[in-house]
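For the sake of transparency, this paper describes our internal protein records without simplification. The remainder of this section carries one protein's record, kept here as part of the documentation:
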Amino acid sequence: MNVVWITLQVINIVTWLLLFLYGMHYYLICFLFLRKKRDFKLPEPTKLSAAKKRKVLIQLPIFNELYVVERLIRNIAGIRWPKQNLEIQVLDDSTDETTKLARKLVAEYKKKGLNIKLIHRIDRVGHKAGALKEGMAKSKAEFIAIFDSDFLPESDFLERTIPYLMADDKAAFVQTRWDHVNKEYSGLTYAQALAIDGHFTVEQNARSMHRLWMNFNGTAGVWRKIAIEDAGNWSGDTLTEDLDLSYRAQLNGWSCYFLPDVRCPAEIPHLIMPYKAQQFRWAKGSIQTAKKLLGKVLKAKAKLRNKAEAAIHLTYYSVQFLMILNLLSLAPLVIGKQTPSDISFLIPFVLFTFGLFAPVTLTLVAQKHLKNKSWKAIKALPFLFCMGLGISVYICVAFIEAIAGKKSSFIRTPKFGIGNTKSNEDTKKKYGNLKFSYVLYLEIIFSLFFYAEAGFIFLNREDSNMIFFYFPVMMAVALTYVVYRTIKDTRLMRRPDAESE
């Protein structure tokens, strides 16, 4: 029996130490960002007059985007670039009325002299990656800008990005900063905005400044076509085709830049199910990409710091799996009163606690840099915490599926064309193909389990046990919030006065 207890203790300590490592990575990223943010300068861009002589393709991959496709196409039609050097592709894989509306809009702008075409596929081979690859093969443009259906770039977007790509012949892509059209819609959207701001303002900035490997975020950026081809082109064998391609390009010696001053507003999921589906796709795709490329990254002829940071970056979505494993391994120790109280066990616990608050630090650093009101960020932190911890079971399932090699379809994040003001019309829009899954029941079971675990610790409190109390309580509360929002949002979309799928 001692072997079982020792094994559980080893699992518990190892998971704590790994979680501390991932947490410390956030602190390191914050340090790298703060260290260089004042004196860092991007390469001098090429003159705009020279840039405008280059041919540019804008690709708009869409799938059943009835509520935002018109807004998207009309916005893109307003981007400034010489008409003779600009081509726009609406890459439509839709199976609903979106195609009819998109075709009508494309015809309208064709009459106005815009070089725009609709490419409609019915098989969705390779999903978004397949659409981008097929469209690229039909164009001779040198640079390719990509925008998802909810992104609304400013009219000078190409004028502010293409010159940077031209200034460095080895630059594969430039990524711009995501902004938000509905940040103030609810506590849920505000919390997501904080997380997105942290990623772009601090993480992407730090990687770009220190020439670490960074990822293309799938949209709101511009690629050099030859770099895509050299890296092996778009591939649909992972759910994060953007992360996959950007790492393959950098493994081949290409560089990339983040442009923090170029903002591209987009819509944040205002319901929990689309948010969970988005995070599931990102998590599973990241681990799939890690399985595919991590070996090549570690063997690459690159600086050790680049390879170490890339390894953490590619595997970051294992954090939720480690959290669940940590709490599951803790339960038998608590019940059997086998939790050690000596200093050797307390140290990793304290270190993990320190690491747990690293994302909060990164969030506040980003908000301060953006000169946003810090009190609003602090007010939204409980939502951010509940979201981050509350989707742990969902992400854990994604992690296990990726490790096991289970294939799954590309579930889009539905867009509703909403802004900061709530409207009754928001609830009358179709929810799409996001429905309850068995994971909801797993979340309920795990939340009850963690409440029971915390309750047992409290009722049998001893000095050696109470230090383990707060983590299961936090996980239980966060899971309860996510379960509540999942049920509430789905019931809302199924109201009698709402349209149904």
In short: The chain has two domains: 2-33+315-493, 55-272. Strands lie at 56-62, 86-92, 116-120, 143-146, 171-180, 221-224, 255-266. Residues 55-272 form a domain with the Spore Coat Polysaccharide Biosynthesis Protein SpsA; Chain A fold (CATH 3.90.550.10).
